[in-house]
Design goal:
By secondary structure, the protein is α/β, with parallel strands linked by helices. Helix content is about 25%, strand content about 25%. The strands form four sheets. The chain has a five-stranded parallel sheet with strand order 3-10-4-5-6. A three-stranded antiparallel sheet has the order 7-8-9, with no helix packed on it. Helix 4 crosses helix 5. The longest helix has 19 residues. It is globular. The chain starts with 6 loop residues before the first helix and ends with a helix.
Length: about 280
């Protein structure tokens, strides 16, 4: 539930990568076509799908994305100054004040991690680090994104696996303990698995730690909808149907989980044709 339309395009992508006027123009087109945008409404709390059915709606498309940050599962994640990557970007894009200090470390190696660390630089971070447990060659972020981050002064700590977040007596983060790794044999994904070097632990001083490890779905309010083992919505990849007859689902909320924005947009267009056919019988 947010106060502005546009989803992750508005709140999950920094303005230096996607100008807000472009998204606003798209929303304006939708409004001119007669689409009603109701922001700040939480399904399951403010309204339910059953209540919408009673109002006469006959088809539903769930396109809620994967809007929550995944956690690493190490000590210290609840300290003040520790953020999830998506949560951090959302706060910045909403104009909320985010205190980051001078030293910022971002855990992760994907495009979201690059967005996060480059945003931190723009907020005044004097030292910004990417902490990634594999090697540079195995980092999933686009090479262009990595090059741009490097050009902005971001330091990359490869083969560094976070093991503990440390903090002050007042509960504020002040450091990150990392285990130095080396590459072993390939794992199931085909990438060489990082294995720890015995006794090799280092400390990184930080004022803020941001975990950009991936995103996950929060399916509250979708009672009765079938989920996959990954916790995403189970939807047919061709028809976008869920286990509930007139409920369809698309994008990052379904099946494999978070991907790139244009893939979700493409699914939305295909689903619109399917739902139109469904409503016509």
């Amino acid at each position: 539930r947010t106060s502005v339309p546009g989803g992750m395009l508005t709140l999950g992508i920094p303005s230096f990568r996607r100008e807000r006027r472009v998204i606003k123009a798209e929303n304006d087109v939708l409004k001119e076509m007669g689409v009603k945008l109701r922001c700040g409404v939480e399904v399951g709390k403010d309204i339910t799908i059953d209540e919408l059915r009673k109002q006469g709606y006959k088809g539903f498309c769930v396109a809620i994305g994967a809007q929550n940050s995944a956690k690493l599962g190490i000590a210290g994640e609840d300290l003040k100054g520790v953020y999830g990557g998506v949560d951090f970007l959302r706060d910045v894009n909403l104009g909320n004040k985010v205190e980051i200090g001078k030293k910022v470390a971002v855990i992760g190696g994907g495009n979201v991690a690059m967005d996060v660390v480059r945003t931190a630089v723009r907020l005044g971070a004097e030292e910004a680090y990417i902490v990634y447990r594999r090697s540079e060659d195995e980092m999933p972020a686009d090479k262009e994104e990595v090059a741009e981050a490097m050009a902005e002064g971001v330091k990359f700590c490869y083969l560094n696996a976070p093991v503990e977040i440390t903090g002050t007596a007042a509960g504020k983060v002040n450091g990150l303990k990392v285990e130095i790794m080396e590459l072993g044999e390939p794992d199931a994904s085909g990438r060489r698995k990082p294995v720890p070097i015995e006794g090799a632990i280092e400390d990184l001083d930080v004022d803020t730690l941001i975990m950009a490890l991936g995103q996950k779905l929060t399916p509250e309010g979708l009672d009765g909808i079938e989920l996959t083992k990954k916790g995403t919505i189970s939807a047919d990849e061709q028809t976008f149907r869920t286990n509930i007859e007139n409920v369809f689902a698309v994008g990052d909320a379904t099946n494999k989980g978070a991907g790139i924005a244009i893939a979700a947009i493409g699914e939305g267009e295909k689903a619109a044709h399917v739902i139109d056919s469904f409503l016509k019988g």
